[in-house]
Amino acid sequence: MRVGDWGWGAAQHLEEAEGKPSGSEPEQERRQQLAQGVARLRGELQQLDLQIETAQREVMTDEVSLEAAQERIRDAQRRSLLLKAYAARLAKERQQLQGSVAQLRGRLEQLKDISRKAKVELTMGGKVPDLGFAGLEPEVLRDVRTACQLRFRFLKSLFEHSTSGALPSGTSEELLDASYQHWLSTVEDIVGSHPPNHVLAALEHLALENTLQMQELTSRIDIPRDVEALKWEGWSRCEELWVQQLPLQAREQRGTAQLASLVQEMHRLLADGSEHAILARAVLELRAVRLAGLRDGLRRGCQELEQEASARHAELQALQSKRQRILDFRHLVVSAGSAGGNLGARAGQPLDVGPAWGVGRQ
């Protein structure tokens, strides 16, 4: 029960007491004093109620303020976490940008160096390389020659694998892959360290060297004479094999005739059931088996000779087709040499140097 309710009950009790008849004066004074006390208590109670309501409102206000402060603290914590994550991301991006800037600076210095090299006139020397003074070649020519040799060896391995169906001895797929990666890195180093005009000049020089070397090699050989000699050698070998086959065929015929006569004699002896006939039959069977083995051996020898003769004939046909290809290639080399004689006057124009740097075949 609130204090105000208690005061209201006391005042009601006092009013009821005042309504009763009384003849004593002190009693009335006492009632008046009680009424004044009750009024005073009512005022105090009202003040207490006001103070309590004010305190409650202050408590509610403080609770609202506390919740707002806690929300601000949580928001500040979230903002702090977001700012930390953002700062970490910015630091990572800054590191990446610094790495990119360093790479760009290195590439810029590399391009400046290439630009300076491009202004220098490149001298390749003579058309035919001098192996005794290979160290005097320009660096770009040595690098391009190395790249071309790597490419040639790689393509040669692939060609041998495609023709024979197996990799060359001492070579595996891992080695081929490593060779290709090495050639690729070499080409990247050349492109990144030498001017394009120097690289093109080196390729043209190597192409001219190879053309001159092929012309020199083809001028030293007499292809028709060599092919003709190989052809006559093949025919001679075929003739020898045929001559060797004739006695074997004659022996086979004689063995077949002897075997037939022995079979007839065996049938004649088998008609007689004596002991001498049985012994003769056994001897004849042994001779028949031996002659049959001899016949089979002669037949196999004849078949081998026929196969060898067929192989020689196929080799002869292959030599004839190879001769035709060599003649066609020689004509192509001569045509390319006449077309490449003016390479020195065609500065700045690219030359067809073969697929993927594969011109350096020394």
TrEMBL record:
- Region of interest: Disordered: 1-33
| InterPro entries named in the record | HAUS5, HAUS5_metazoa
Recorded superkingdom = Eukaryota
Q: List the record's Gene Ontology CC terms alphabetically.
A: centrosome; HAUS complex
Q: Which GO terms describe its biological process?
A: centrosome cycle; spindle assembly
- Can you name this protein? HAUS augmin-like complex subunit 5
State the organism named in the record: Chelonia mydas (Green sea-turtle)
